[in-house]
Amino acid sequence: MAAHLLLLVAVSAVAVLLLAPPAGAAFPRVQHPPKADGSLAVLAVGDWGRRGQFNQTLVAKQMGVVGQRMDIDFVLTTGDNIYDDGIANTSDPLFKECFTNIYTAQSLQKPWYIVLGNHDYTGNALAQQDPTILKVDSRYNAIAKSFIVNSGIVDFFLIDTTPFILHYWNNSKFDWRGVAPRDAYIANLLQDLKHALTESKAPWKIVVGHHPISSACGPGNNTELQELLLPVLKALFVTLNIPMHGDANAIQSHGADMYVNGHDHCLQRITSRDSPLQLLTSGGGSKAWAGKFKATPDKVEFLYDGQGFMSMRLNKKEAHFAFFDVAGNVLHCWDLTK
Ligand SMILES: *[C@@H]1O[C@H](CO)[C@@H](O)[C@H](O)[C@H]1NC(C)=O
Ligand SMILES: *[C@@H]1O[C@H](CO)[C@@H](O)[C@H](O)[C@H]1NC(C)=O
Ligand SMILES: *[C@@H]1O[C@H](CO)[C@@H](O)[C@H](O)[C@H]1NC(C)=O
Ligand SMILES: *[C@@H]1O[C@H](CO)[C@@H](O)[C@H](O)[C@H]1NC(C)=O
User: Fold this and answer.
1) Which of 257, 208, 189 is nearest to 74 (CA)?
2) pTM score
3) Could you say which of 51, 70, 252, 265 would form a disulfide bridge with 41 (CB–CB 3.0 to 4.6 Å)?
4) Which residue's C-alpha comes closest to atom 10 of ligand 4?
5) 2 vs 177 pLDDT, higher one
6) Would you list which residues are annotated within the binding site?
7) Rounded to whole angstroms, how far apart are CA atoms 66 and 72?
8) What is the whole-number distance in angstroms between the Cα of residue 171 and the centre of ligand 3?
9) Where do the domains of the chain lie?
10) What distances in angstroms separate CA 231 from CA 10, 227, 267, 290, one per listed residue?
11) Where does Fe cation 1 bind (predicted)?
12) How far is the CA of 267 from the centre of ligand 3 (A)?
């Protein structure tokens, strides 16, 4: 009798395990394998869609040149894709005027992985992730508001940050369909991100969102993200006392290496004051030169108030990053190794 009961308990436990969805399954995933030599080359640009104005066209041209030279695999956008209020529907001519007709270089005819910014949210936010937009331009991959691009050597976690910002919820222009209520949306997002970061086996983990956590150019750091998102991104360095190939300690990280955002119209590299996290802003896709500088408690390694974009080239062990201006000059570059 007791044995039967025990067996029943054991069987139920197994059933529960089998029924529980795999952690991190909630974010849709795109597989984008690296090149045959194991490397990956990517550009990141943000805050761009202004029908070519404010030097959007010059930035696009240099992205094409650098993209060609690096043989890029894809482009990441950090949001505020279409000014001032996103698109009205998937056939809104603004989409072609801001995207298709601007990023015309051969090297940029690759997938673009998209997050939305607050300006995309004050239009029809669902239109940018409607699959019919792919019929207008097949590059425009916004498969969900948050999703993961698995590239083997790097996992990119694209995160929807607009709902975090409290004062937007007082503005009736925001399209919260599929988002409201805020608290449940954010709790789910953070839980899914935590699971996905923990499960990721990729040597590099890069989180991409629209709003900065820490920033020295205007509008500056966001307290909502500092409180809610930052703890999830901060590397939880666990020292395991397991001898591995002669090493006394193996260090395992469940956090992110890097957070890349837009929103602030500048190019910027910040190192976190209390974690290995690097905080990068690539928000120079069009209008810039705001001249608004802010305080941040973290260390500002580089700040440029003008237009431009960033590049990354990674393999399993090494990563090289650079910021470019409208003339294609390298303004700042740095390397990281694993
Ligand atoms: C565009 O770039 C040129 C060249 O750097 C610069 O002189 C000009 O001020 C920029 N225009 C705007 C609107 O930022
Ligand atoms: C799509 O949006 C554009 C721009 O607002 C508008 O002119 C057009 O009528 C809309 N099309 C549909 C099918 O709603
Ligand atoms: C939103 O509006 C309410 C009512 O006007 C106000 O009390 C509150 O402070 C506002 N919240 C934010 C975050 O702006
Ligand atoms: C940004 O960080 C600085 C320095 O800690 C702080 O004084 C400021 O209030 C922060 N701004 C925001 C918007 O959180």
Assistant:
1) 208
2) 0.89
3) 70
4) 221
5) 177
6) 47, 80, 83, 118, 210, 263, 265
7) 8
8) 10
9) 24-337
10) 36, 7, 24, 30
11) 47, 80, 83, 265
12) 31
Q: Is the CB of 166 under 6 A from ligand 3?
A: yes
Tokens of 115: 């997050």
Q: How far is the CA of 286 from the centre of ligand 1 (A)?
A: 10
**pLDDT band with cut points at 50, 70 and 90 for residue 19:** very low
pLDDT tens digits, residue range 257-300? 999 999 999 999 999 998 889 999 999 999 999 999 999 999 99
Identify each DSSP E strand in 91-236 by its residue range.
112-114, 140-141, 147-150, 154-158, 204-208
Dihedral sign for Cα atoms in the order 45, 49, 266, 274: negative
Asked if 272 and 298 count as a contact pair (C-beta separation under 8 A), the reply is: yes
Q: Is 92 in the pocket of ligand 2 (CB under 6 A)?
A: yes
| Tokens standing for residue 149 | 């691009």
Query: Of all protein residues, whose CA lies closest to atom 2 belonging to ligand 4?
Result: 296
Cα(122)–Cα(169) distance, rounded to whole angstroms? 11
245 lines ligand 3 (CB under 6 A): no
Atom of ligand 1 nearest to the CA of 307: 14
Q: Where are the beta strands (DSSP E) in the chain?
A: 29-31, 40-45, 74-77, 112-114, 140-141, 147-150, 154-158, 204-208, 237-240, 250-253, 258-261, 267-271, 278-282, 299-304, 309-314, 318-324, 330-337
Instruction: Tokens for 201, please give them.
Output: 């086996």
Peptide bond into 183 cis (omega under 30): no
Q: Where would I find the beta strands (DSSP E) of 131-174?
A: 140-141, 147-150, 154-158
